[in-house]
């Protein structure tokens, strides 16, 4: 890939779209086809809950290292959405995933006390390392939300049509259908405006590829755990019957 590129935001969008697991992953394909079990969905819910607990920390670390006010404003809004809620505002994303887990028959305490899978821990570690590095590296996690609204819509539709979940139970996905539009735009604007030379673009691309690899590890861990559960194995929390 020749660098620097004048339209680097377009390159970022293409790298993310072509690299992330999204609907290509076996686990997601099973969910969208209506073939996932309640235990499959429970494993996903628990791991996503624990991943969501770090979303504001990723944004906060990136915020602290970013020299550009316009990008910091966007990152601050992400932090506020996750932690600085005023009375009457919608729940945090972690709370919304907890709501879905309860709809599956899980107890709040079982979800909160569950042991994150190795793939989930590895994902958190990689994204935190990026978030605590160069600010362009930290922005890679925001880039993972590019086109996420489309995927969220597919999941929401599948969960309601194939599995019969209520609007309230799938609020995590309906929220991401709108919130992730602006989250992804933070990355596109940041990269497009400030990653204008070869060095900055190389930093950004290396981080994007690490972020993409971390997402594959996260989803592969969920898929492996679902296979263990099918064989009666233990996955770090009490599965629903």
Tell me what the structure shows.
By secondary structure, this protein is an all-alpha fold. It has one domain: Heme Oxygenase, Chain A (Up-down Bundle), CATH 1.20.910. Helices cover 70% and strands 0% of the residues. It contains twelve helices and no strands. The protein has helices spanning 8-19, 26-32, 38-52, 55-65, 69-82, 93-103, 108-112, 118-131, 135-143, 148-161, 171-194, 198-230. α1 (8-19) runs antiparallel to α11 (171-194), α4 packs parallel to α8 (118-131) and α8 packs across α9 (135-143).
Describe this protein with a few key phrases.
Heme Oxygenase, Chain A, 241 residues, mainly alpha, globular
The name of the CATH topology is Heme Oxygenase, Chain A
Strand fraction band? under 5%
The CATH superfamily appears as Heme oxygenase-like
Q: What is the averaged pLDDT score?
A: 93
Order of helices and strands: HHHHHHHHHHHH
């Amino acid at each position: 890939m020749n660098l620097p590129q004048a339209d680097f935001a377009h390159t970022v969008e293409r790298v993310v779209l072509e690299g992330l697991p999204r609907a290509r992953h076996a686990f997601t394909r099973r969910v969208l086809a209506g073939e996932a079990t309640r235990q499959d969905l429970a494993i996903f819910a628990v791991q996503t809950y624990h991943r969501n607990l770090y979303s504001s920390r990723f944004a906060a670390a990136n915020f602290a290292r970013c020299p550009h006010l316009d990008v910091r404003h966007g990152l601050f809004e992400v932090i506020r959405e996750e932690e600085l809620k005023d009375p009457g505002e919608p729940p945090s994303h972690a709370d919304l995933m907890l709501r879905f887990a309860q709809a599956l028959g899980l107890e709040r305490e079982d979800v909160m006390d569950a042991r994150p899978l190795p793939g989930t821990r590895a994902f958190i570690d990689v994204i935190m390392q990026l978030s605590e590095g160069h600010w362009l590296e930290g922005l890679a996690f925001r880039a993972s939300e590019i086109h996420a609204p489309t995927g969220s819509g597919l999941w929401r539709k599948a969960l309601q049509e194939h599995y019969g979940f209520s609007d309230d139970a799938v609020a995590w996905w309906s929220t991401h259908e709108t919130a992730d539009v602006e989250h992804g735009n933070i990355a596109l604007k940041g990269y497009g405006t400030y990653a204008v030379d070869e060095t900055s673009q190389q930093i950004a691309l290396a981080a994007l590829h690490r972020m993409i690899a971390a997402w594959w590890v996260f989803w592969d861990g969920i898929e492996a755990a679902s296979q263990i559960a099918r064989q009666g194995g233990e996955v770090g929390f009490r599965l629903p019957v």
